[in-house]
Design goal:
The complex is a heterodimer of chains A (249) and B (262). Chain A has one domain (4-238): P-loop containing nucleotide triphosphate hydrolases (Rossmann fold, 3-Layer(aba) Sandwich), CATH 3.40.50.300. In chain A, the strands form two sheets. In chain A, strands 6-7-8-3-9-10 form a six-stranded mixed beta sheet, sandwiched between helices. In chain A, strands 2-1-4-5 form a four-stranded antiparallel beta sheet, with helices on one face. By secondary structure, chain A is of the alpha/beta class. Chain A is built from seven helices and ten strands. Chain B is mainly α and 262 residues long. The chains are: A alpha/beta (249), B mainly alpha (262). Chain A binds chain B through residues 52-54, 73, 75, 78, 80-82, 84-85, 88-89, 91-95, 98-99, 102-103, 105-111, 136, 138, 154, and chain B through 30, 32, 141-147, 149-150, 153-157, 159-163, 203-204, 207-213.
């Protein structure tokens, strides 16, 4: 049986009286590469925030690694790249090395230096994301694609099992996008990291991922490389009431 | 100059404030919350006025008023989640309103020294208070440095890394309030936020890393205070104003040098 990393069961969420997610159910297995798509305001980011525990559902349950997300404390298992990071102040005075090492925060204060072991780890991760030449560069001076690689590296420091990314490719040119997808493919295939990524570019993401969660009118519709098999499997798990519909765009 | 006891006291206090104000200001500016310094300083003024009326040491009452205001801002921010700056306006208006009413009640003759800062009235009690609280504030920043850096850079990810954002944000608000209240003796409530912002503004133009930015901010803060106190003594000027103008001069010089480099 495949290991379930995320499970969302009958979850609903509203902003005031506006219900943006209505009785949604889905699951993400170990090794999946999932794309989340939907028009503006379709609650893609809300769904992602619910999955990582930044928001609490009005009803329903959400589990991470089999634990209710409200009780989940094993934060090293998850990496999260929010939309906010691409909007941060360009003058923010932080180097690539400082940003990547941020997840080792508990190991030092203002005056302590990293141990060799930690330095080696940071360098190795920067090599994986091909940003080792930019170690001492200021993050604000990098291109959009390079910044996203640095944010990925920041998450990799903790050897996460799953990586959540909220529209990492907005404003990034096509060549950098392709390189970014190559990196994600490497993380997914070689390092067995489960990936969940929001994208507005349906055409591109549909060719890159295993599954797509399409959000519209508060419901989630699942597309899979093998839809029939996937839907039958979900029916086995959730029964007939599951909000899983196969549809074509 | 240092043969005068009040100048020795002023230098001790000034250097301590120069260490604290830009340190706290650095995190405020990068979190785009620099107006909080201004807001809390107005509330601290009403606290000082209250202390004068009730014959309580004004710095104590200023600390209580500004900490209450800092916690109030945090609370109001949740009420106005999408218009967070409203919470600052509400608290600032309350501070100004309360200060003017309390001052009009009388027995607040020394209030000007809290408005613009003063060297003549620095007491041993002021020094003990500034040095004691200053050490606590600096020690906190040293030990919480990485948590503060993480929250400043990306608050959501910091939360998901297991950092207690709420607790640290409240604690940091208290540190800001303490900084404002203990700095007003020399710099004055109307100018303390400038000492929190101007050295940071200069450092951001030349900093190559987060840590170097913090160090430059402190260095420019110390330079501003020392230059300002010396000018204030020899030219018989208000110390708060000369300190802030010195900080401004440093900022202008760095802007010019950086423009020439480019």
């Amino acid at each position: 049986m495949e290991e379930q990393i995320v499970s969302v069961e009958n979850a609903s969420f509203s902003y005031g009286t506006n219900t943006v997610l209505d009785n949604v159910s889905l699951k993400i297995n170990k090794g999946d590469f999932v794309g989340i798509i939907g028009h503006n305001g379709s609650a893609k980011s809300t769904l992602l925030k619910l999955m990582v525990g930044l928001l609490k559902p009005d009803k329903g349950t959400i589990k991470l690694f089999g634990t209710s997300v409200e009780k989940f404390k094993d934060y090293k298992k998850i990496g999260y790249i929010s939309q906010n990071v691409r909007d941060f102040n360009q003058m923010f005075p932080a180097t690539v090395e400082e940003v990547v090492s941020i997840n080792l925060y508990h190991k030092r204060n203002l005056f302590t230096r990293f141990r060799n072991k930690d330095n080696e780890k940071i360098e190795k991760i920067l090599e994986i994301v091909e940003m080792d030449k930019f170690k001492t560069s200021k993050i604000g001076n990098l291109s959009g694609g390079q910044k996203q690689r640095v944010f990925i590296a920041r998450s990799l420091v903790n050897n996460p099992k799953i990586l959540f990314m909220d529209e990492p490719l907005v404003g990034i040119d096509l060549e950098s996008q392709n390189k970014f997808y190559d990196l994600l493919s490497k993380l997914n295939n070689e390092y067995n990291i489960t990936l969940v990524m929001i994208s507005h570019d349906v055409g591109v993401i549909s060719k890159k991922v295993d599954k797509i969660f399409c959000l519209t009118d508060g419901k989630v519709y699942v597309h899979d490389k093998n839809n029939d098999v996937y839907i039958n499997r979900l029916k086995d798990i959730y029964g007939e009431d599951v909000n899983m519909l196969f549809h074509k765009h | 100059m240092l043969s005068y006891e009040f100048m020795r006291k002023s230098f001790i206090m000034g250097v301590m404030i120069a260490l604290i104000a830009p340190t706290i200001g650095y995190f405020l500016v990068l979190r785009r919350q620099s107006v909080i310094g201004d807001t809390l300083s107005h509330v601290a003024l009403s606290g000082a006025a209250f202390g004068m009326i009730t014959q309580i040491y004004p710095v104590y009452t200023a600390i209580i008023f500004s900490i209450t205001a800092a916690l109030g801002i945090e609370g109001l921010r949740k009420k106005y989640e999408n218009y967070a700056e409203i919470s600052l306006s509400i608290v600032l208006s309350t501070g100004v309103g309360l200060a003017s009413v309390l001052i009009s009640l009388g027995n607040t003759q020394g209030i000007l020294s809290y408005l613009f800062g003063s060297l003549a009235f620095v007491t041993n009690q002021d020094i003990i208070m500034v040095v004691g609280l200053g050490v606590i504030i600096l020690a906190t920043i040293v030990f919480l440095y990485d948590d503060m850096f993480y929250i400043t850079f990306d608050e959501e990810s910091a939360y998901l890394a297991g950092i207690s954002n709420k607790l640290i944000n409240i604690y940091f608000s208290i540190l800001v309030a303490l900084t404002v209240a203990i700095s007003m003796r020399i710099v004055g409530v109307l100018l303390i936020s400038s000492l929190m912002v101007l050295p940071v503004a200069a450092s951001l133009l030349i900093a190559k890393s987060f840590k170097s930015g913090l160090m430059y901010s402190i260095m420019f803060g110390i330079m501003s205070v020392i230059i300002g106190l010396i000018l204030s003594f020899y030219l018989d000027l208000a110390p708060g104003g000369t300190i802030v103008l010195s900080a401004l001069l440093i900022l202008i010089i760095i802007i010019i040098v950086e423009s020439i480099k480019k």
